[in-house]
Amino acid sequence: MARSRSPRPAQALVTFPNPARRRDYTIRHVAPEFTSRCPVTGQPDFGTIIIEYVADAVCVELKSLKLYLQAFREQGIFYEAVTNRILDELVAVLRPRRMRVETQWNPRGGMTSTIVAQYDRPARSRR
């Protein structure tokens, strides 16, 4: 089985201060050319990654997000694992108020898959 850890750690994600921290507003990034590998067959998996979040103190810089996502290209990882890993790593770096990661996978064997993982900061932790 191929390695499941990215050669480019989430710590390489660059952030910048949220310009409107007082307000809840939704940031939506769509990566329509996401690629990873099936950990069973080694065949490429193609999909779209949709990241939606309400920032708190920081936002993610797009080039670093693109490079982070591209690091999965040669990783053998199941759809469910990559979706949850992206959510976990982005939450750890950004500490958003809310985040949702949806992965929509291109057909393989006549089936498509959509995986959704989300995070809501507990109310007592909100500023």
What's the β-strand tally?
Answer: 6
Number of helices: 2
Question: How widely separated are the two ends?
Answer: 43 Å
Describe the main β-sheet briefly.
Answer: 4 strands, antiparallel
Task: Give the class from helix and strand content and strand pairing.
Answer: alpha+beta
Calculate Rg over CA atoms.
15 Å
Tell me what portion of residues adopts beta-strand conformation.
35-45%
Spatial strand arrangement across the major sheet: 2-3-5-6
Principal-axes geometry comes out as elongated
Mean pLDDT: 92
Order of helices and strands: EEEEHHEE
Low-confidence stretches: none
Helix content: 10-25%
Give a description of the structure.
With 127 residues, the protein is α+β, with helices and mostly antiparallel strands. The chain has 2 helices and 6 strands; from the N terminus they run ββββααββ. The chain has helices spanning 62-70, 79-94; strands spanning 15-17, 26-37, 44-54, 58-60, 98-108, 111-120. The strands form 2 sheets. Strands 2-3-5-6 form a 4-stranded antiparallel sheet, with helices on one face. The chain has a two-stranded antiparallel ribbon with strand order 1-4. The longest helix has 16 residues, at 79-94. The N and C termini lie far apart (43 Å).
